[in-house]
Structure formats: C-alpha cells, structure tokens
Amino acid sequence: MKNRSFHVRRAAALCLSPAVFSALSLLTMQLARAQMTAPVQVAQNLRAPQLAETVVTATRSEQPLSDLVADVSIVDRETMESSGATGISDVLARLPGVEIARNGGIGNSSSVYLRGAESRFTAVYIDGVRVDSQSTGGALWEQFPLSQIERIEVLRGPAAAVYGSDAIGGVIQLFTRKGEGPAAPYIGVGLGNQGTRKVEAGVAGTAGPQGALDYALGLAHARSSGFDSKASGVHNPDDDGYRSTSASARLGYRINAQHQLGATLLANRLDSAYDAFTYLPAAPNDDRNQHRLRTLGAHWAAQWSESYSTRVSVSESLSRYETSPPPYLTETELRGYLWQNQWRLGAHRLSATLERREDHLNNPALDAYSVGIVRSRSQDGLALGYGYSAGAHTVQANLRHDSDSEFGGKGTGSLSYGYGFAPGWRATASVGTAFRAPTLYQRFSEYGDATLRPESSRNAEIGVRYAQGSSSFSAVAYRNRVNNLISFAGAGSCASSFGCYANTARAEYSGLTLAASHRLAGVQVHGSIDVQNPRDLDTGRQLARRAKRHATLGADTQVAGWTLGTELQASGRRFDNAANTNVLGGYALVNLYASTRLAQDYRLLARIDNVGDKDYQTARSYATGGRQLYIGLKWEPRL
Hints:
Blueprint: H1 2-11, H2 18-33, E1 54-55, E2 63-64, E3 71-76, H3 77-83, H4 88-92, E4 98-102, E5 110-114, E6 122-126, E7 129-131, E8 149-156, H5 160-163, E9 170-176, E10 184-192, E11 196-207, E12 213-227, E13 240-254, E14 259-273, E15 288-303, E16 308-324, E17 328-345, E18 348-363, E19 373-390, E20 393-404, E21 408-422, E22 425-436, H6 440-444, E23 455-468, E24 471-489, E25 500-520, E26 523-532, E27 535-536, E28 549-559, E29 562-571, E30 574-575, E31 583-584, E32 587-599, E33 602-609, E34 628-635
Parallel strand pairs: 6-9
Antiparallel strand pairs: 1-2, 3-8, 4-5, 6-7, 8-9, 10-11, 10-34, 11-12, 12-13, 13-14, 14-15, 15-16, 16-17, 17-18, 18-19, 19-20, 20-21, 21-22, 22-23, 23-24, 24-25, 25-26, 25-27, 26-28, 28-29, 29-32, 30-31, 32-33, 33-34
C-alpha cells in the first residue's frame, strides 16, 4: 500500500489580461528611454544561440548550430544565476515548449512536460551520463542541484533514433563546469525570504604543459524553511523546507593532439519535507523525503585521422528515493557503455554507435503492506547516422535498433531536412519514430504486467527560423502521436486489487511554438508562446496538468551599470485529472530582477518573483511559494 501511495502522489484559455500586457509594455518603454552605458549581455535562453556555437545533444557529437535542423534551446550559467532559482525545473519553465508541475516547494515531486509529453518521455543526461528511475519512469527532477550546472541543452522532439528508449518528447542534457584558462576560483552566497540560504564555492582552470590538464571542482549547500506545501485538505500545517548539499568534479587530460581522457562526478544529498495523504492530529508526522543522486562518467576521445574519430565511454548513475516515517525506498542504478565512431568526408558526416545500457531496480518491502522487487534488465543498441551540410541544404538521417533482454527488439528512425531560402532564414521539416520501454516497476511490481508493450510514437514537424545579429524568430508546428500508452487502469491480471498498469491509451501532442527576440532602442525584448492540444485520443480530453496555451515575455537593458529586467510567465487553464473535472486555474506571474558589479570581481543580484503574490497551483491542493525575494553576491575574479 505504501508503494501505491508513492506512485499516486507522484502522478498526482490563456490568462493574459490587457492590464498585464499594458503594464509590461509600459515598463518596456520606460527601459527603452534609459541611457545605455554598456552593451547588453543577452543570456542564451533569451534569444536564438549564435549559429557558430556548437551543441552536442542533437546528434550526440559536437556540431555547429548552423548545421542542425533540430529545435534546440541553450541556457548558460549567467542565465541560471540571474534567474535566482533553486530548482532546475524552474529554469526550464522559462523556455519555449516547457511546462512544469510540482507538489509543493523545492524538493517535492516535480514533473517537466516537453511539448506536452509526460516526464518519462524525456531522456535526461548529466555530462553524458543517463539518469532515470525504473520505479516511476523518468528522471526525478527534484534531485538535480542547479548550483552545479554550467549549461543546459534542450532538444524538443523525438530522438530515439539517436538515444534509444525514452526520448519520445525530447532530450535534456545538463553539463557541469569545465576548466578553461588560468585557475578561476569563485565564492557565492545568497539570502531569500522563507529562510532561504545558499552558499557555493569552487575552482576551475587548466594546468601542466600547454594546459594539458583541465579541472573543475564545485561545492554547494542550500536550505530553506519553506512553506506549507498543502493548500487544502487535512494535513500537517507545518512549513515544508529542504536541505541540499552537492558536489561536482570534472577532469580532462590531453595526452596529445589526437587523444584526450576525461572523467566527471556529480553528487547531491537532498532532505525535504512533504505532507502525506494521511494525517493524525493527535500524533502529527514530519514527513520527509530523502534523495540521493550520484553520476560517474569516464571517456576516451581519439582523432585517428583527419576524417575518422572515436569516443569510448563508461558511466554509472544512482537515483535513490526514500520516505519516512511512512517507509518507502526505491533505488535505480544505471550502467552505460558507449562506442561512437564518426567519419567526416567533405560535406558528409557518417556515424556508427554501439551502446549497452543496464538497469537495476531495488524496491524492497519495508512493511507488511508492500511487496518488494529486485529486478534487472539490459538493452543493446546499434545506431547509424548520416549528415550532409553544404550551401543552403542540410540533411540528417538516423536509424537505430535496440534489443531489450525482456521484450525483444525495437527499431526507430528519423529524417530531417533544412533549406536556407534567404539570408538568416531557414525552413525545416522532419519525421521520426520513438519508443519507451516499460519500467521494471510497471512490469514486475504487484501492480505490474509482464506482458506490457513499449510505448511508441510517430512525430512530424515543420518550422521556419531566422537569426541575424541580436534578432531571432522561430515557428515550429508539430504532431506527435503515442500508441500503447501505459496508464494505471482498473483491476486486471496483476496481484493488486487497487488496479494494474496496462497499455490502455493513445495520446497526441500537437501544437505550435513561436519564439522571438529583438533589440529595440537599447532594450532586448524576448518571448515565446505555445499553442498546443495535448489530448487523450480515446476520450478527446485534455491531458492532466498541461495547458492549451502558455507563454513567456520579457525585456532587459542596462542603466548606470545596472542590468534591469522583467519577465512575464503565463499559463492557461489546466485539469488535474484525466476526467477533466478538477480545474487548475490559469495564472500570470510578473518577475523583476537587477544585477550590477560592485567592484571588478563582485557581482550583486536582486530578484523578486511573483511580484503580485499570485495564488495559483500546478498540482491540485498543493501550494506554491507566493512572492519570492532573493539577493545574491558572488566573488569571481575576472582574469
């Protein structure tokens, strides 16, 4: 029964009024009148990245953005620091095509919806190390320490032909800091309301002859008294805070111009409070989550000739979740082995990849009401890729076959084409298939069915993009249909009388994403809007906790040495259940931020989120934090 409680708890018209738009427009005009004292530094997620920049997530190897057809966003460290956020999901929520839901404050169950797709349909990596849960399915977003992340790449759209199982909605890759140049230490502190405190320190750089050794080390601690995570219902009315202690390390050694070795480590220990479903006023519980996350990776990159290169890597991740006093424990360990080969022949690029993934789930029975699981499985994959980029034309084709030790083989493929029809403009089109294998819990728990089939999808999309200087625009229309959708259904062949997992549903994620950025009279204006229809194809109803419309809008400039900015985040009405009877109202939030350098090496940040103290919910009966104030100071010598 405790196992079921955990899984139920985790599964648990655009409201942009004319007044809100008028207020934002007025602020933008006021900023535009300000006298500029320095060039505006625009963060990566506030505009299209520069075409010369390289990304790795789209094809799993470094490529210039100008060669990609995929729909990609990049978030740099400056943007994350300016956000004042503590959770990675809060940063992602400011990107096109992304929505989040959370059961209370930081440290509680979080979901990230990419183009409306469930959390389990996004493949997540940290420095190339796969992170997943074979219990609920999908990464536990609350486990990721934002303070250790240097860069985020978000790929929207299926990528199973490159990554294998899970990448139905897209791929999100997180990167820790990498050492470059002379040793660069940093120390940062931050304070906020609700007893929020953060401290971080680290150093990164290179050493040895010609900088052959690069290194980076980071340590951080964050804590908050939090707020009462439940907005209604019988519960313990105490504040539900959190404590997080994290560390990361990254080493690289260049043996010579052709060979390089590298290793990465990330670890986080998170202790957070939550409100359980049951509550006894005579003996109130202080319900706690205990999270542990660890990722390890090592690789060898070799350039054997001008045209042929390889990369060999081994990795391991551990995602552990435990609750008390209601006893529950789930632990997922993943091991990965990758051998990637790439040939570059003029405008042509060929790749062949062999990959093995081993999943192990430990879900022990801790009381008389639960049934334990200790299960393992493996997947072996072969992926082939072809890319062409010359003149106005770009082609990317991928094929992959995965063989699962439990249910057999599955093939996927994708084909994309881009055409530059005018300076700065490109039209794109792509089709692809993807799948997600059932989790070990979905197949072998007391609620499981060993005969479950993989969830599979077919996606098609078209787009147009423009990038020139500080201006950018993109429009992408997509339709992604998923068959054999696994849901928690009624009584079936499993041992539980509460219900069983089954392939009972079909879903469609379709929509249009518009994003733009433009500098106007010294003010960088940026925004995005998503118009989508995530729905159950069998009932026609809207999928839970996803809006049909959501948007962001912002502006920033510099005045007298200060960077000043404002943001608007808005979401339309959502439903908290599949029957569409529990309504989650739409909302609009206004955020303000300002930063400056007090001296050459010190940077001050002040931020107010939800200025109007809007009362809203992303999960029914769970509260959100209200108005949030944060002030941070960072010392980082400018060499």
